[in-house]
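Hi there. Long-time user, first ticket. I'm pasting a complex I've been working with (about 655 residues overall). I'd like to know whether the download I got is complete or cut off, because the file seemed smaller than I expected. Thanks.
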Amino acid sequence: MENWRRQPWVFATFIGPGTLWLFLFFLLPLGWIWLFAVGEREGPVDIVVTWTLENYREALQPVYLQLFLKTFLIALVSTAICLVVAFPVALAICFAPDRYKNVLLLLVILPFWTNMLIRTYAMIAMLRQNGFVNDGIGLLWTALKYLLTPVGLDGLMGERFAPLPLLYNNTAVVLGIVYVYLPFMVLPLYANLEKLDRSLIEASLDLGASQVRTFFEIIVRLAKPGIVSGIILVFIPALGTFLISDLLGGPDSQLIGNVVERQFRAANNLPLGSALSFLLLYLTFIALALRAWFAARAEKADA
Amino acid sequence: MIPVRRRGLLGGGLAVAGLLPLSRFARAQEDQVNIYNWDTYIGSDTLAEFTDATGISVRYDLYASSDELFGKLREGNPGYDVIFPSNNYVERMVAGDMLMPLDHALVPNLKNIAPAFANPSYDPGLKYGAPYTYSLLVIGYRKSAVAEPPTSWSAVFGPDAPVGRVSLPNETDLVRVALKSLGKSLNSEDPADLKAAEELLLEVKRRRVVKMFAPDTGQDLLLSGEVDLAVDWMGDLRQVMAEDDDLDFVVPSEGTVLGIDCMCIPKGAPHPTAAHAFIDFVLRPEVHAAIAEEIQYAIPNQPAVELLPAEIRDDPQVYPPAEVMAKSEVPAYRGEAAEKLFEDVLTRVLAA
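Hi, the file is complete. Here it is re-exported in full:
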């Protein structure tokens, strides 16, 4: 890279297509949405940019702020579960024999071969009242009851199996988010752990640190860049979720993404939808900036 | 490397991107018609018969919801000739100057439309759309799960509604039927009425009656046993009733939402003459009757209804009696500000 000043054309050739693509298909449309947020509707189709702040004022009403908070919590819980589940998986793949590694990585990204909508519908088939999980537990229940009857203990188990309410609630939404976004946590963690210098682990163990201490003080610390990128890759899309909460959620599972989607479609209120989505964007930026600031401060304190 | 001029790209880029997929069909001579319709909403032989009868070939695209249709056309017609918007979207699209008036001289079969549908509030004199089918928003239920069949909206909104066993639509129609259950017009914009409807829905939610506010999937929840009562369209419920004898539906005694889907020609249609020919063809009694028999929806075409088998024609669950129809109302579109009143109530109910 020290050479790019001397060979600007090479640099431009490499950076050009990507920049053009992002400008045309990301920044430009985003600019439109940003303008919609300060616009007003004039009839069912036209939006006039009047630089009004009315849409932002409406988006800051308690009813929406409460949804922002709820969405934030759901995304936070889902990200935490993803991290706890993904870390051992990533570690296991790292320490697997070389010939299995590619197969294991393939298994992690295998769900991407199917559309997300289909995968979410598959979750419905798993979790619903007469779904595979409830049917499976029901079978076990019947078997257990059959076994307990001769001993006279079957009375403990109730008359009939009551299916568990697994679907159409907030737990199902979290489960759905974890299921869909788990690979986004595993892959950066794996990439990071794979580069880890294993002699450091041996040194830590040789010098008398316990397995637990070695895990937290050596492996987790060295995996920090992977953890951070995994968290960002899962948390930010989880904030914008609307499909999963729409299909798996219950009566109180509406997230901010659902409101935005409805403004853009059924409600035909693009200005409000744009203001809400930009508010989410601003909040995400603030969160990332705060994180960077805390990280910088911690680094200074360490030094 | 093709030189890219920024202004040309900004001006024409979006329009070109929208038109490209269809432009190869947009030829001058009208030997083609581009139709955009709901899924499973036409007879399996209708299109082939139309081509045989007229020599006009058909390109057929599908959409899943009215707002998908509206969203696709709001930035300009990408090349469709015939679309099937619901009554309130007909009004919205007329307000947005997106529809072409029908030339009644080219659609003589409009005379077949039953008098009750010939001069509707959403489109006086059928200026923009030919009514295609109609449906009521009703309460579907599982017979073995309810003590006695429901008769009114109190089955889902009243104190006896079963906890966690009801699915309600997640659209503004929910607010409209709540108004109806309170004895008000479903088009009432009176703040007191809307407040009362909101209170009613919040109370229903507080009692944990609702299992899910379903995005047009109430009939599936009913079929899979997730809920015992589902508010959904008559036509959708008839489809699941065919699969499960234990399901039935009732039109609530207070009246309900009447939805009418229409055949319209969007502005900028490349083949308007062929579009008129298609609409006229569908309104032929034998054609419309064949469609109705297959898709199980009620049609507003008098001579076509007379051609239907008696068991369909006389089934009050397909063609509800006049007194039931009289209590139902067509939701009116009175501009975006009025729509927002209903949207805001829905948002507060869903977010609570």
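A couple of notes from our side: Chain A touches chain B at residues 24, 41, 43-46, 63-64, 66-67, 128-130, 165, 167-168, 246-247, 249-252, 254, 258-259, 262, 264-269 (CB under 8 Å). The first helix of chain A runs from residue 8 to 36.
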